[in-house]
Amino acid sequence: MTSKPSLAGRQILLVEDEFMIAMDIEAELVEAGAQVVCAGRLEEAEKLAQTVSCHAAILDLDLHGKTSFPVADRLEERGIPFLFHTGHGVRENLKTRYPHTLVCNKPCDISDLVRSLGELVPAS
């Protein structure tokens, strides 16, 4: 069994439009020691991607029929690592557009998702 990453002192932006999924991911992140800032709509997520001080992000690709690409673009401009947690994106297409990101296809084990995020978060 792989141990959970320590995300103590790390702030994570979570962009997810499905409330129950967001709650489950947030709980797992908090258990790993992270502070979580959540957004469920594209407009809110875009604003946070420009302003919030975070160490990494988890992005759902489809937010109520809109892609989270503008959020990913802002995070990339700011040098903030992120991963996509999506049931809609094609891994190869996402990796072509964002070569330095990870893609976790839904459904996936939330512990695995958090471990993947831990690979992206800079060491303290």
TrEMBL record:
Residues that bear 4-aspartylphosphate: 60
Keyword Phosphoprotein: yes
UniProt-listed InterPro entries: CheY-like_superfamily, Sig_transdc_resp-reg_receiver
Domain Response regulatory stretches: 11-121
Domain of life: Bacteria
Coiled-coil residues: none
Keyword terms of this UniProt record: Phosphoprotein
Name by which UniProt lists this protein: Response regulator
Organism name: Aureimonas populi
